Prior knowledge:
Blueprint: H1 12-26, E1 43-48, H2 54-65, E2 69-73, H3 86-96, E3 100-105, H4 110-117, E4 122-127, H5 133-147, E5 154-158, H6 165-176, E6 180-184, H7 196-199, E7 206-209, H8 212-216, E8 221-224, H9 240-247, E9 262-264, H10 287-307
Parallel strand pairs: 1-2, 1-3, 3-4, 5-6, 5-8, 6-7, 8-9
Helix pairs in contact: 1-5, 1-10, 2-10, 5-6, 5-10
Amino acid sequence: xxxxxxxxxxxxxxxxxxxxxxxxxxxxxxxxxxxxxxxxxxxxxxxxxxxxxxxxxxxxxxxxxxxxxxxxxxxxxxxxxxxxxxxxxxxxxxxxxxxxxxxxxxxxxxxxxxxxxxxxxxxxxxxxxxxxxxxxxxxxxxxxxxxxxxxxxxxxxxxxxxxxxxxxxxxxxxxxxxxxxxxxxxxxxxxxxxxxxxxxxxxxxxxxxxxxxxxxxxxxxxxxxxxxxxxxxxxxxxxxxxxxxxxxxxxxxxxxxxxxxxxxxxxxxxxxxxxxxxxxxxxxxxxxxxxxxxxxxxxxxxxxxxxxx
Length: 309
């Protein structure tokens, strides 16, 4: 790989290689001194134009474990306020000595644009409602660790599919690894018919369900998504209360899934809306495992792009 821009352009073999490397690197996190000199002398630019907690800090943690230095960019107080373009900003920071750019941006396609105009690797940390590839990779790693496979699983994704970059990346990633994906949510928050072909890598491994029961029944993995009101130009649902009543997950809904089915959420979680408070104690809830695996996956991505390993 020269860049990591999306899941769409990755093969199943490339995904498997990243996951294998992440599994190997994860051991470093448990050492008494969790640090190796592998990327010493490398400088990583964290270019975040949107709020982030898990993604931003896990990239920063990954850099520190691998001994890479970081520059954290804030649009506020920068030359962007004076009219400087994104590309000029990045080119100037590259001239400072940056070796790799991690970017989160509200406009879809921004990482792809940058990758065409600069000579160093670009990692997409989320672009608009397009994709979030490292989130999908950490979700794959979490499922693989817990269930020992990524093939022939039923993956149920419930919530605001339409505006979720996580959903787009997960839908593609799990299908590429041989599993079936069932999506469900309010009709107004599901993909439009013209978008379905993007998701349907295999007609037999992707289905849109208008009733949550159909998606959840017999599922091996359930991924709940947040209602992304910040991306709604107009109301798509009557109220969050109504959403919680019809599409929020409770222990009752999870009685439909297979015994031992995993519950995932990319965060941030609105407890009481997409997940009931009782599910904080659900025995197969692996949300913090996802966060931990996010560091290992981002270590693997950085190492791959900066060393070619």
